[in-house]
Amino acid sequence: MRITDARTLVCSPGRNFVTLLIETDRGLRGYGDATLNGRELAVASYLDDHVLPLLIGRDATEIEDIWHSLYKGAYWRRGPVTMTAIGAVDVALWDLKGKLLDTPVYNLLGGRARRGVTVYGHANGSTIDGAIAAARGYIDMGYRAVRLQSGLPGLEQPYGVGRGDLYYEPAAPDHPIEETFEPGPYLRGVPQLFERARAELGWEVELLHDAHHRLTPREAAQLGKALEPYQLFWLEDPVPAEAQESLRLVRHHTVTPIAIGEVFNTIQDAHQLIGEQLLDYIRTTVAHAGGLTHLQRIAHLAELYHVRTACHGPTDLSPVNLGAALHFQTAVHNFGLQEYMRHPEEAHEVFRVGYWLEEGMLHVSDSPGLGVEVDEERAADFPYQRAYLPVARRWDGTVHSW
Ligand code: CS2
Ligand code: MG
């Protein structure tokens, strides 16, 4: 099966997505997600200007060889732009191989290992009450796990609280929104949120929280300890994970489970944390970590150290990525939990998906490939709009990690 054409499609049905389309001489088309929130066109150019010309004429079934030729052949390895581009090619090739062999991608990855993929929803509120009411909505819909983020006394613009109850969309057109962060109110407020949540929601539901890279190791250790009575499923990104030895301090002081890795791109970003067992859940996802080929390597390493997979699944990645993550999570042995923020209606007018939610799990269909199809005509109705992620500042104006 030879590649005859490859191109990117940039559209904005509710938010920006970059989609890779690869066509073959067998009349089949494969899709990959090349979206890098806030830096979308850099990946589109990496693909269009540098990678896609190399693919024409290649045998689309040689996934492993194409992966290594793009990774090693670029000389400049790793990084979010490179790895997102390679990931998009890789996923499109798995989609094509499934279509060629008339089987869902999870079959190519080892076959079904579970009934469905358990997900967590996002309960956000500008107040603690609001977040708890939103969590109740998810529990009523059958979710077994819910992430809680809320405004706190003295911290009215926290991370993770946006428009609407269904999802939050942090990217804003033209100019980044500014949020504030102060460790004092945050460290005092989050335990209050979970104390109330356990009192009102009970103990059957799994609860999660994302600190979004904002704490120092000592602050993270303090928060992890303070949250122990509420038995979180995980505390996510407690510290910026570039300085991985920081996690030792956090780990030595708390048994609250730790999830890290949505900004990682390669196994090299994760291997120290995994090897030292400094985390419990690895958050790397298909689109940003070199596709299914590379994510499998990370998962297999993680399995040796009791670390489970927990693919990043925000609405700023397209349904093509979520579809690929669901096939991966259906087949991988050491699955933990999958993030699920529901895409807005417009996104589903462009991306027709075969997955569905039932009993707090997402299920993939048995259609060949990924089971996600893209309507190019409808995509043309939603042109790209430049958008930026927010920045965070301390109370005195100092820039902080967002
Ligand atoms: C996040 C994301 O889903 C998460 O856990 O941390 O909301 C993240 O901020 C965005 O995907 C950034 O693009
Ligand atoms: Mg996160």
TrEMBL record:
SMART domains: MR_MLE. Pfam families: MR_MLE_C, MR_MLE_N. The lineage of its organism: Bacteria, Bacillati, Actinomycetota, Nitriliruptoria, Egibacterales. InterPro entries: D-mannonate_dehydratase-like, DgoD-like, Enolase-like_C_sf, Enolase-like_N, Enolase_C-like, Mandel_Rmase/mucon_lact_enz_CS, Mandelate_racemase_C, Mandelate_racemase_N_dom. Gene3D superfamilies: Enolase-like C-terminal domain, Enolase-like, N-terminal domain. Residues 128-257 form the Mandelate racemase/muconate lactonizing enzyme C-terminal domain. PANTHER family: D-GALACTONATE DEHYDRATASE-RELATED, STARVATION-SENSING PROTEIN RSPA. GO terms for biological process: amino acid catabolic process; carbohydrate catabolic process. This is D-galactonate dehydratase family protein. One of its GO terms (molecular function) is magnesium ion binding.
